[in-house]
């Protein structure tokens, strides 16, 4: 059956969203220098990351072992303080990261422990590539709306140093080809970062930002366009752009037919893939670039944390009652739009 999944949020508000930027800036000029052997052998020019993806810098964690977790803890503590709630009030904690050091246990367990969350706070991971954070917010809102919990803490952190160092090493090897460079190019556009959001009951928090609804859609016939682990990521960038934008357009059209009127949204926070993606999204949907805050040039593609980190940075520019649209796309392909009344 064609169409979207439509979820109406009845009594959930976003109470706070915070981000943590890693401490170590890594410029695309530096990546070019590290790739010098590959560039000479394959006759590749400098500045491809800047010209093609619009990524001038990304960040890595100073502490290569636990920096990502420290980033989550910092963002979560700030978010709970801003929301005015204590740990004991949080009934659910979801980690939405793509990055993970191990297959098990769930990433959230070490963060739950580091934050000193109570045993009554249920915790689990949601992984859906770069769409995970928006999915986690939808799941948390459904549990708040149903009265199962009062407050939820959604967190995530990406740590891309390992995959980028591995990619550079492979491309510098003598057997690497231009096809290898094209297939692994997207991994060089990634960035590290962390985010946290607190959600709670809207009727108890009139100061909160009310969640209106979520529109979601699956396009899983494209599940093989981007496949990766923490060592290697291979992407059909052209296919991902074309089919990702088409999935967004299909979702956008059906959402408008369902009465969401997305064209009137004042702030659109899409997943930050590249400036090419953003321009194509703007052209396809008619959303002016002045309504789309862009962070990919400074942070790279921070995977599942791109949307909440961008929202956290942009929130001083959002006025009360403004309509805000969070828009994620995850490899697979899946997409979800979440509307919030600020």
Stretches with pLDDT under 50, minimum 5 residues? none
User: How much of the sequence is in beta strands?
Assistant: 15-25%
Please give the largest β-sheet. Answer: 10 strands, mixed
- Tell me the overall shape: globular
SS-derived structural category = alpha+beta
Number of strands: 14
> How much helix is in the residues?
25-40%
- The H/E string reads EEEHHHEHEHEHEHHEEEEHEHHHEE
Explain the layout of strands and helices.
Layout: E1 5-8, E2 12-20, E3 24-27, H1 28-34, H2 36-42, H3 48-53, E4 57-60, H4 67-83, E5 90-95, H5 107-115, E6 122-125, H6 132-145, E7 151-158, H7 161-172, H8 178-184, E8 193-201, E9 209-218, E10 226-228, E11 233-235, H9 237-257, E12 267-270, H10 275-285, H11 296-299, H12 306-314, E13 323-330, E14 334-341
Parallel strand pairs: 5-6, 5-7, 12-13
Antiparallel strand pairs: 1-9, 2-8, 2-9, 3-4, 7-8, 9-14, 10-11, 13-14
Helix pairs in contact: 4-5, 9-10
Can you characterise this structure?
- 36% of the residues lie in helices and 25% in strands.
- It has 342 residues and is α+β, with helices and mostly antiparallel strands.
- The chain is built from 12 helices and 14 strands.
- The strands form 3 sheets. Strands 1, 2, 5, 6, 7, 8, 9, 12, 13 and 14 form a 10-stranded mixed β-sheet that branches. Strands 3-4 form a two-stranded antiparallel sheet.
- It starts with a strand and ends with a strand.
